[in-house]
Amino acid sequence: MQARGQATASSVSHGLALLAEGIEELLAATAVSLDTAELLATLRGLEVARRKIPAVDHQVLSQCAEFGTAVALGHRKLSGCLQQLLRISAGDARARIRAAGVCGPRRALTGKALAPVQPATAAAAYAGLIGAEHTKIISQILGKIPARIPAELAAQAEQARRRHVEPGVPGQVGRGVREARRPWRRHRRRP
Q1: For residue 76, what are the CA distances in angstroms to 44, 63, 73, 81?
Q2: pLDDT tens-digit map of 89-124
Q3: In the chain, domain spans
């Protein structure tokens, strides 16, 4: 297995083939009766796998944006390209692109690799600890942090969200992330 960031076209194709093969194997295996413990372990394993797929999406969509894939295929915007290629709604396409914008890899104008806008959120998505809905809520709330707030406080807010978000369900995430924003709120009130 290659290290992250060293993928080739053949390793990506191989990974997709393994994914498809694994899904087929799971479909066949779950057709038999499982006991309660096995069912729960299966559900947990499926959820972690389901949550990791958007992290791959973030990397692929970041590259599509960087290389102008949409324009090369005759589209004005990447969202339109995704709608047609993947047969998804406009809202879903835009949501995926927004998530890739905050969790995907970036490049400076010089070509230097940059960390994601929200590195802790990206790491949690990569590990399968949070899903697309968690990422959306975190990004919406942390995106409200004003640019004038020192970078250290913004980073503290993103790190603090781990305590509140990872164990929670998406409906409870907003409360926890708002809690994590408190350091910059105190900073904002200072004269």
Answers
A1: 40, 16, 9, 8
A2: 999 999 999 999 999 999 998 989 999 988 888 998
A3: 42-189
